[in-house]
Design a protein that fits this description.
This is Carbon monoxide dehydrogenase subunit G. By secondary structure, the protein is an alpha+beta fold. The protein contains three helices and eight strands; from the N terminus they run ββααββββββα. Strands 1, 2, 3, 4, 5, 6, 7 and 8 form an eight-stranded antiparallel β-sheet that branches.
Length: about 130
């Protein structure tokens, strides 16, 4: 399953946007209002839960300085990644595309597509407001 959020226009340089997203504590500011739990487990891992959804643990999988940050499921039960592709668009301006890629069976994909689309859309909207 491949889902892309609308591009976020961010009033920060590409470097500053990358550094903001690399500090996983900042993801708490990007979460939907329905967040019930947010906890930093270590510098590369955080756990969160949204109302009515199971708890998810995300781990930093890879980073290409100033261009891309990839987070993924910490467990292998439901393999997926959330990738932020960051581009410079001007001085103190950048844009971020959030891309979700997951491997789910057809039934699971049908159940999670709407909530995941809404979730990454909210992350993108809130990132543009930072």
């Amino acid at each position: 399953m491949h889902i892309e959020a609308p591009t976020a226009q961010v009033a920060k340089s590409q470097k500053d946007t990358f550094e903001y997203l690399s500090d996983l504590r900042n993801f708490e500011n990007l979460m939907p209002e329905s967040i019930q739990t947010f906890e930093i487990l270590d510098e590369d891992t955080f756990r969160f839960a949204l109302k009515g959804m199971p708890e998810i643990v995300l781990k930093k999988k890879s980073a290409t300085p100033h261009e891309q940050l990839e987070l993924g499921a910490a467990s292998g039960k439901l393999p997926f990644t959330l990738t932020a592709n960051i581009r410079e668009t001007g001085p103190e301006q950048s844009e971020v595309d959030l891309v979700f890629q997951g491997e789910f069976n057809a039934m699971m994909a049908m159940m999670v597509k709407g909530p995941i689309t809404n979730f990454i859309g909210t992350l993108s909207t809130n990132l543009a407001q930072q």
